[in-house]
Amino acid sequence: MPKKNEKPIQATVLTENVVAELDDSDAKKLYDLSRFGERTDDQFQYALVEGFYLFKKGKMILKSVHNRVISERKFMKDVLKHDPQFKVRYSVYADLRDRGYIAKTALKFGADFRVYDRGVKPGEDHAQWIVYPVHEGSALTWYEFAAKNRVAHSTRKRLLLGIVDEEGDVTYYECKWLKP
Description:
Shape: globular
Structural class: alpha+beta
Number of domains: 2
Largest sheet: 5 strands, mixed
CATH class of the largest domain: Alpha Beta
CATH architecture of the largest domain: 3-Layer(aba) Sandwich
Oligomer: single chain
Number of helices: 5
């Protein structure tokens, strides 16, 4: 929940992300403190998992482009149309944030998230891990696993698989290259 003098960030949900005004003082505070969102020239942009996380924590109000408040149910319905794995990805994102890590999108690394060690903010140091959320019931071929490992190795990050069970609990497996 927001603190006494904090107002929830008023944000607009778009197809690919969530945006808030650059002059929103609470958005600035959250960015400075915990690196929520990405600052652009004219707004703060949030990944959908980031916006939903802030919504669930009572720190953001989600609105449509027509300025109507969006319910959790409506948000999930719309997002799942475009991203059927959203719940799995959100479970991993929320778990990492709740544990004190900063997780950011990692599309340019070929992964879902890049994760910074506790106390490290993006821009101060490099991410330690790239993370792939996986539902416990889904299959991962050796070829896919090797490809994920190669991406992690080539970006000088460690590979973290976030396995999400039916209850939404996450178990992590870290994979490292061994030099014999």
